UniProtKB/TrEMBL annotation:
Gene Ontology cellular-component annotations: plasma membrane
Keyword annotations from UniProtKB, A to Z: Bacterial flagellum biogenesis, Bacterial flagellum protein export, Cell membrane, Cell projection, Cilium, Flagellum, Membrane, Protein transport, Transmembrane, Transmembrane helix, Transport
GO biological process per UniProt: bacterial-type flagellum assembly; protein secretion
Protein's name according to its UniProt entry: Flagellar biosynthetic protein FlhB
Species per Swiss-Prot/TrEMBL record: Paraburkholderia dinghuensis
Lineage, highest ranks first: Bacteria, Pseudomonadati, Pseudomonadota, Betaproteobacteria, Burkholderiales
Cited SUPFAM superfamilies: EscU C-terminal domain-like
Keyword Hydrolase among record annotations: no
């Protein structure tokens, strides 16, 4: 069963899984790396402080082996000599002990870092389960650890044996040398043997560190279901998040639609795009876009504009340029000033016509729109439910042409009657009606 579980764990551990394991006291560790760090610190400490260590050891040994009959039976003098020997021995090894202690503290930083966790001290009865213990003993990790231990023993023994064998003549000749020379040569031989042993431990650590990292991350692998569950815990259920985003977009759309009645004009494509512009002289530096949309949303904007007697102007290049290049509640860019100024001038003329009568103002044509701003049509990738919310649960018939047709009809009627005309009044032009009504095959809006 354990093997089947391991086979199912095909996904790499997530950062949260690694952090959770660390909180539980599980990190990648290499005992061989720590051993190498301790041996290296001890070896280089002895090597650099060999002169000082030799002096202290010589003083210790001279005091320990120099005595006479009177000293032997004098307890105070013997205790004093023992104290001197202990002091000199401590002076000899204390620097090396300090260096190895620092190495022991710094070695974990190289792999896994320092870790203080009380979770490992908690009582867990599953650790007393003999079956799990046998499983750990006979797992694939056991033979590998045994092989590493045997390889370490053989390698260190082989290196040490070769170092002693190559210097066997020097070792045998130590008894024939004066004490000071013999002591120095012996110290040198010990240093050489220790150095070769450290080199061997480096090779072992270089092999053990990658293995421990691989083993640690392999043990933390997760199943696909665990990854999905963690993603839901971290980021929330994707379906719930999708509904929240949908509601947020719907609220934003409703706020945008509530601004359409305040617009001075709605520029259309005529069916694919609709952009509502507002400009208040003395309060705004330039006209700004207060609503925009494509396809179904554009149909809703045109409908609201018609219901509130907001002028509609067909200017496809300008509508596309405004939609693509201006965000909501942002002022129009400089290259579109001339075109929008002509549109607003027509709007003001239309307002005067409605109030005072006269000749019907001509809609502006040949509006100057830089080609680089007109990016053409786009595919409406908005979800159907968003369009339903923008247009209402029951998609009403588009009456975008009503406002414009009533405006055009007003040119042939009494100005006072035109001002009071129903914005959704009957159309006078079949072409205009077909032009402003959203396409049923593309939008799904029923007439």
């Amino acid at each position: 069963m354990a093997e089947d579980s391991d086979l199912e764990k095909t996904e790499s551990a997530t950062p949260r899984r690694i952090q959770k394991a660390r909180e539980e006291g599980q990190v990648a560790r290499s005992r061989e790396l720590s051993t190498f760090a301790l041996l290296s610190a001890g070896f280089f400490g002895v090597w650099m402080l060999s002169g000082t260590i030799g002096e202290h050891l010589e003083t210790m040994l001279r005091g320990a082996f120099t005595f006479n009959h009177a000293v032997v039976f004098d307890t105070n003098r013997m205790l004093s000599g023992a104290g001197v020997a202990a002091r000199e021995g401590l002076y000899a090894v204390l620097p090396v002990l300090a260096m190895t202690g620092v190495a022991a503290l710094l070695a974990p930083m190289a792999l896994g870092g320092w870790l203080f966790s009380t979770n490992v001290l908690e009582m867990k009865f599953n650790r007393l389960n003999p079956m799990e213990g046998l499983g750990r003993i006979f797992s694939w990790n056991g033979p590998i650890q045994l092989g590493m231990s045997l390889a370490k023993t053989l390698l260190v023994g082989l290196i040490g044996g070769m170092a002693v064998w190559h210097r066997r003549d020097e070792i045998l000749g130590l008894v024939m040398q004066p004490s000071q020379r013999a002591f120095a040569d012996a110290f040198h031989l010990v240093a050489v043997c220790c150095g070769t042993t450290v080199a061997g431990m480096f090779l072992i650590a270089a092999l053990d560190v990658p293995y421990q990292l691989w083993s640690f991350y392999r043990k933390l692998r997760m199943t696909k279901e665990e990854v999905k569950r963690e993603s839901r815990e971290n980021d929330g259920d994707p379906q719930v998040k999708g509904r929240i985003r949908q509601q947020q977009r719907a609220m934003a759309r409703r706020r945008m639609m509530s601004q359409v009645p305040k617009a001075d004009v709605v520029v259309t494509n005529p069916t694919h795009f609709a952009v509502a512009l507002q400009y208040t002289d003395g309060e705004m530096r330039a006209p700004k876009v207060i609503a925009k949309g494509v396809n179904l949303v554009a149909a809703r904007i045109r409908e609201i504009a018609a219901e509130n007697n907001v002028p509609l102007l067909e200017a496809p290049p300008l509508a596309r340029a405004l939609y693509h290049n201006v965000d909501l509640n942002r002022e129009i860019p400089g290259p579109l000033y001339n075109a929008v100024a002509q549109v607003l001038a027509w709007v003001y003329q239309l307002k005067r016509f409605r109030e005072h009568g006269g000749d019907v103002p001509m809609e502006p044509t040949d509006l100057e729109v830089p080609p680089e701003l007109d990016k053409g049509a786009v595919q409406d990738d908005e979800a159907d439910e968003e369009a339903d919310d923008a247009l209402g649960k029951n998609r009403p018939a588009a009456s975008a042409a009503g406002g414009q047709n009533a405006r055009q009809a007003g040119g042939r009627a009494d100005p006072a009657a035109n001002a009071a005309a129903d914005p959704a009044g009957p159309a006078t032009s079949g072409d205009a009606n077909r032009r402003d009504t959203p396409r049923r095959d593309n939008e799904g809006v029923s007439e």
